[in-house]
Amino acid sequence: MSYYFAMIGTKDNPIYELEIGTYKQSGDGTPKFPTEMKELNPFIVHSALDIVEEVQWKNNQLYLKTIDSFYGYQVSAYVTPGNVKFMLLHDVKAEESIRQFFIEINDLYVKMLLSPFYNFNESIKSGSFDMRVRLLAKKYL
């Protein structure tokens, strides 16, 4: 089981991207996307942004659940109050753990926004942020 996580800014720019594998069911955390799929991951997530923008105004929830699918892979989305989108491409159906993952990532992102060294809508290059995202992925995915 593999996951591709992306944070998309308000200008449809990628803020943070991570490819991860599962640690559950004796996984080693290595993503196992096929080679041709690995190249398409950013495009699949980006194409689902149109659906997010349609659904977010019809729904009053931050977690939008699974909004799109592509060759057996699903795209789940979460929209922050600041309109930054968290997108997760995955091949398993685990809505509750994905929802918890997004909530924890949102808390982590808010802490990042409070840093005087981070400017809104810029790429996140913090090693500490990356490490914490990986720990959350290990915990929930």
What does this structure look like?
It comes from Kuraishia capsulata CBS 1993. This is Trafficking protein particle complex subunit. It holds the Pfam family Sedlin_N. InterPro entries: Longin-like_dom_sf (IPR011012), Sedlin (IPR006722). The protein has about 140 residues and is α+β, with helices and mostly antiparallel strands. The protein has one domain: Beta-Lactamase (2-Layer Sandwich). About 40% of the residues lie in helices and about 25% in strands. The protein has four helices and five strands. The chain has helices at about 35-45, 50-55, 95-115, 125-140; strands at about 1-10, 15-20, 65-70, 75-80, 85-90. Strands 2-1-5-4-3 form a five-stranded antiparallel beta sheet, with helices on both faces. A hairpin with a 5-residue loop joins strand 4 and strand 5. It starts with a strand and ends with a helix. The mean pLDDT is about 85.
Structure keywords:
single chain, 26% strand, 38% helix, five-stranded antiparallel sheet, alpha+beta, 141 residues, Beta-Lactamase
Summarize the structure.
It is built from four helices and five strands, in the order ββααβββαα. It has helices at residues 35-47, 49-56, 95-113, 127-140; strands spanning 2-8, 14-21, 63-70, 73-79, 85-90. Strand 1 (2-8) and strand 2 form a beta hairpin.
Topology:
Elements: E1 2-8, E2 14-21, H1 35-47, H2 49-56, E3 63-70, E4 73-79, E5 85-90, H3 95-113, H4 127-140
Antiparallel strand pairs: 1-2, 1-5, 3-4, 4-5
Helix pairs in contact: 3-4
